[in-house]
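Entry 14. Ran structure prediction on the chain below.
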Amino acid sequence: MISLNNLTVEFGGFTLFKQVSFIVNTRDRIGLVGKNGAGKSTLLKIFAGKQEATKGTVSIPNEIKIGYLPQQMKHEDGRTVIEEALTAFEEVIQLEKEIAQINNEIAERTDYESEEYMKLINRLTEKNDRFHMMGGENIQAEAERTLLGLGFLRSDFNRQTDEFSGGWRMRIELVKILLRRPNVFLLDEPTNHLDIESIQWLEDFLKTYPGAVVLVSHDRAFLDNITNRTVEISVGKIYDYKVSYTEYVQLHAERREQQMKAYVNQQKMIKDTEDFIERFRYKATKSVQVQSRVKQLEKLDRIEVDEVDNSKLNLKFPPAPRSGDLVCQVKDLSKSYGDNLVLKDLEFVIERGEKLAFVGKNGEGKSTLVKVLMGELDHTGICKIGHNVKIGYFAQNQAMLLDENKTVFDTIDDVAVGDVRTKIRDILGAFMFGGEDIDKKVKVLSGGERSRLAMIRLLLEPVNLLVLDEPTNHLDMKSKDVLKEALLKFEGTVIVVSHDREFLDGLSSKVYEFTNKKIKEHLGGIYSFLQNKKMDSLKELEVKKNIVQTQVEIAPSDNKMNYLERKEMSKKISKMERAVSTAEDNIARFEEQIVEMEDMLANPEKMQDQSLFSKYEQAKKDLENEMTAWENYNEELENLIAEKGE
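Output, structure tokens:
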């Protein structure tokens, strides 16, 4: 589908790629990996036509549609969320306008027998056929379904896009790409601004998508759940592994061991040859052998290996005064922004030494509660911080608080004490500040570099309660490992707001789920929580989620109905839940059929198959009917639950 042939990319004398060749096939799920600066994002830009190679060719057939999501993007204002999402259907919207224009023209004409009139009729038929084949009547429903899947509420649809944060606007761009149904997805760190539920929705979507996916991500679980092929970029070369990320790690270690052996052997051979040349350079009797060895070295294809720091960095937090057993007590706590109630009547206790994960959909109040704990926001109710608790806080905007006129080294040297001061360079290296980077001023650093620097500062401060709001967004896998290991050894209390499942795995022993303005406590790790949620509601749409939450909140001891009435009502609710579930299965089946037939109809030969076109039209009608039934079942289910809870 896409092929690279002898691709070379150079920047100011530095060679990023050297004669790289490989092919992206139709159903490939490729994870691009490599150290920072290896060229992963550059390769995606070349695929997307945003950047040109110095030499070589990139072959992409004209009919192939590319969907590219960069890490940073420019946004246009002036539209609502749903209007912006619908721009993905430019061709369908244009067809609709043309159809309306032709209909108006036909309505004004009376020369029914003329050749021009028949041409108009034929054009209208062609446009209508194309409109129906592209699912023109379903674009609103598709846009809404995708927006819901990526965490938007129906109440968000008519809000202006400029009311949303950068993370949410990135989601809108992702929605548009998904709706365009490209043949190839190019995704550069797509999970950075998604919550756990949206990441799982995206995983499910990409796993069943009929096109190809090429992605860059530092989320191990995301890579493992999606990819079936891993392409490593190392010192300008490509190493292609037909396996997912975890298997790649093992194979990479084996390849590197072999590569290092070959490198060591070659270096020994080079040294021996150079010694021979130096020893006999001026002996006439050895001149032929010397010249032969010189030519041998000139022709030698020298083995290069990536520099890897194999030293074990043991990053320990500085000792902090012991806090009381009760770190934080919250009772009847509520928080509103104007008329918007975000948190309602929260009640929980955090004890010394606990490591907690705050998870849930974006907008459910995780960061708001963190700011309340930090004393940054007013609220009602009680939020009491325990005796001798010293808080270290990493906010999502923490990078903006650094002194821009200091160097990277000085920023850390200011807070480092004791033995840590001798390891500043090692610590900075572990967080991707190497070589001359440590002498850079903070003001020239990128947003990601500033975030990493702010994280290092926090790790070196003597605190006994760490509050981390999305700490891994700009960390690569090695940096995340260093941070996670340090947190595991940390003897104080930790609260982590994160969507990174791999990072939370083994770190948190208790999960606080934010939902419906409340907090639900889940004992156990993140994967135990996710397993239960998957059975509950993670795969379901917004309405279904709200229904399940309402059911959970109904007290089993409700006595407002007698036993028989409640038993009968429970039967009705169960029956309606089965109807909802069946409808959802049917919707998924019809959508899959439609996608398959769209692929077939894209073939000009198949376009002539009227029976296929009829099946396609019927599948779309079936889908529309099933969507209507699903909405009716959900409405009836909500009414039954409300009646039971009266």
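Residues 535-561 have pLDDT under 50 and may be disordered. Will compare against last week's run tomorrow.
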